[in-house]
Amino acid sequence: MDDFKKQIEQAEKDIVECVVLSLENGNIKEEDLPEIGQFVLDKIDLLKTHEELSAFLMELSSKWPIFLNIAKIEKGELQERAESETADSVLTLLKHGKIDDALSLAKSETNK
Amino acid sequence: MPAYTPAEQREAQGRYAIQETPTGTVKVRERAKKIKEEVAKASSRSAIESFATPPLPDKEGRAAKLENKLGWEAGVDGRKSRPPGSAAEATILKAQSADIIPSGVIENGYDSLGAAHKVVVRDQVEAGLRAHMPDTVDMILGPVGTPLANRDATLDAFIKDPRYKDILRSTHSAALNKDMTITDEQLGAAREALEQKTGADKRVDDELKEINKKLAEANKMLAGFDAKNVAKPGTDAYRLDELWKQDATIQGEITRIQSKIDSITGTLDQLRKLAATERMANPTGSPKLTTLTGEITAQETEQKTTVGELGAQHALIKQRTDLETKKSKAEEDKENLEGKREDAITNKETTAREKAAARADFDHKRISREDEETEYIKGMNDSLRDAGAELLKRRLQEANDVEARVIEDEAKETTDRHEKKVLDKLKTAGMKLNKKGNHEIDKVPALQFGKNLLDPAKGLDWQIENWLKAGVPAANTEELRLISERMKDKDFVDKMRAKMGPILLGRYLQAGGKLTKGDSAYFEGTDWGPNLIENAINGNKELKTKFDTMKAEGVIDQSFFDRLKKVDGATWLKILALILAGGVAAFGVAPIAGAVVGAGGVIAKEGFVGAVT
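Above: the input entities. Below: the structure tokens describing the complete assembly.
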């Protein structure tokens, strides 16, 4: 199973856990479930990238704030992933002696 | 606020998760528990699917839903009015009846049903399957009216797929929860509006009737004065005319009588003076006084009579004046009433139009609501059938998804660029992705690819070459030469034929394409046709495993496929269609294997494929 599919499954798991907790806490009503479920099912299979997953979770949490934590986590992971990719690129540039380019790339990431 | 790191977020969520939670209602806790159970039993996705559909309410809840959704007229007690024998009563009885079997399956499982109810479920599911793939269902279950012996067992196995119950929960809940577009409130408001408009129209109608009545009276009165009635004794016109004709006489009489009265008055004055003088002279009376007194009395009598005559003449004038007043008043009334009538007619047009509009609106809403309630019950009746069709659709989609994935993997793995190109084309040939990303048959191209194969002028090899040449410019003669060379590579062509033939024909059949006896003869004459069944079985992991098992158990032997090539065309086509047209995907291997092997056992000896030559 590829990495993205695992992430989708994790997101589904997080969504269900959130729903169960929110039901028990009274943060959502049973009547909210069909709309939440339909919203998720309509969109989740169409997601193709981590960015789309993050945007989907943000949209989900904007409609039902109970999912805000999941959206934030996903956003954080996306950021972490971007930072990690930048770090790899910086190292590659350094290995090839392109010190100025490496510094410039590192600086651009820091300024984001 | 600084952003949490993912680890911090997960920790916070974990802490949030183990916090003591307020006590929810039993119902909500039960729902949460069910979601957890669904995750444990199947997957998070399955749990999301389960709560995307409202759960089926319990028996009381369902009864309450039907009570609320159906019927709209409130009785005196405020509840819905459903008099015995009424359409409203018939509707709710039908709905209650339509709920019994689906709810029984959902709540207690198919096995809990009695024999009669199982018959209903099987028939409904069969109808759903037939609507989707009639030919395949005909072959697997037998034609309508002449079912195969294993028809009930095949349907039972299909219905017992746990997903059937889940889908039924969804279809039946959806049917039960379906809201009426025309609400009770809208109907109530429409009826109230109609009552108001009807009342307003009646008031204007009554007013108009009253005006018409008065106008008729005025007209009747005026008709009495009409010139044509002048010669008609007893009419006002006649009388008035007569009075006018007598006017000169009356005036003359009045002058004459007045003169006579004046004369009598003068005579009386003189007589009274004479009598007074005489009385003064003879206070005790005298013959003269007696005579005078007698004359006075006579004159007074005469005067009285004459005044009466004058009064009679004046009465005639008054009679004429009264008649003229009467006529004038009637004319005036008529004019007024005609004005009022015009206004009333205008009002009546408005109120009648508004009443008709209110009636049309109410009738439209009432009929629409009746139609909706009929549809609502139909939806409940169809939920068993729709769930069957949906499960079939999902099984076919899953099979198509697996098939597409297998082709995709093979395309990724192969180092042969020509093979890769054909496999890439094959993956999407006659297929499309639905919005959920599942593979579905794309009818038009699927039929076209099938037709290409069945067309003697084209055929399977033409399709292989066509795909290989796709996108190659005519100027690229070297690549075109290589493709021509590759088409002479028997191993390559055989491999592609084995892969493409069953898949493209399967998609063709799923799209509703038909195979004829002529096609059977055509297949027999091609290099790839006779191996279609063998290649179809070998290309389907599930089917291959089953057939390998049957081989191992001696149910069929090694020469099975060779003998299969010798059966009559109709039987061969039937087996081919069963395997290719979604039969395996829809019903599993057992009915197919049963059909192929036959009730009599080993194919070579007797049984289904009995026409071995």
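Note for the figure: The CA atoms of residues 215 and 336 of chain B lie 9 Å apart.
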